[in-house]
Amino acid sequence: MTIKLLAIGKTDNKDLQALIDDYQKRLGFYIKFEFEIIPDLKKVKNLSEEQQKQKEGELILNKLNATDVLILMDENGKQLDSVGFSSYLQKHMNSGIKRLVFLIGGPYGFSPDVYQKANGKLSLSKMTFSHQMIRLFMIEQLYRGFTILRNEPYHHR
C-alpha cells in the first residue's frame, strides 16, 4: 500500500519544510509515501469562496485514482489518539487497498464533489492550525503510527 498526502499550496517556511522533509524521510523506512502539493490558485480576488473551493476541488479530483481511499483532514472529522490512528492505518493496510490518500484542503475547505468522493474524515484537533503546520503534524503522526505498529520506542520518548 502507498500512503499519499495531498495538500493545496506550498510551504514557504524553510524551517517547517526542513521538519516535513525529515519526517518524510523517516516515514519512507516503513511504507511507500508520496507527498504532493497542488499549487495555489491564481487570480482568486475575483472568485468567491465557493468558486475557489470548486476550482480546488477539480484540481484535487484530477489527482485521484478511481481505487484510491480518500480521507479528508477536516475540522468536523473523527478524532483519534495516536494509538487509535495506528490501528486505523493497520486496518487500511489489511484491507488490501492500493493507495490511501489524506487530503489537506485550501483555506475554505472542500467542494461538495470532494466531500462526495471522500471515504472518511479525520481531525487532528478541535483547535485551528495553519495548513502548513497540519502537513508537519500529519506526517509526524503517520511516522508515529508506524513506530507504534512496530513497537518501537519513539512514541514514548
TrEMBL record:
Any GO molecular function: rRNA (pseudouridine-N3-)-methyltransferase activity
Entry-linked InterPro entries: Alpha/beta_knot_MTases (IPR029028), RlmH-like (IPR003742), tRNA_m1G_MTases_N (IPR029026)
Known catalytic reactions: pseudouridine(1915) in 23S rRNA + S-adenosyl-L-methionine = N(3)-methylpseudouridine(1915) in 23S rRNA + S-adenosyl-L-homocysteine + H(+)
Chain positions recorded as S-adenosyl-L-methionine binding sites: G105, L124, S125, K126, M127, T128, F129
Keywords: Cytoplasm, Methyltransferase, rRNA processing, S-adenosyl-L-methionine, Transferase
Gene3D superfamilies named among the record's database cross-references: 3.40.1280.10
Documented EC number(s): 2.1.1.177
Cellular component, GO annotation: cytoplasm
Main location: cytoplasm
Stated family: Belongs to the RNA methyltransferase RlmH family.
PANTHER family reported in the protein's UniProt record: METHYLTRANSFERASE, RIBOSOMAL RNA LARGE SUBUNIT METHYLTRANSFERASE H
Role this protein plays: Specifically methylates the pseudouridine at position 1915 (m3Psi1915) in 23S rRNA.
NCBIfam families: PRK00103.2-4
Binding partners and assembly: Homodimer.
The name this protein goes by in its record: Ribosomal RNA large subunit methyltransferase H
Species of provenance: Psychroserpens burtonensis
Source species taxonomy: Bacteria, Pseudomonadati, Bacteroidota, Flavobacteriia, Flavobacteriales
Gene that encodes the chain: rlmH
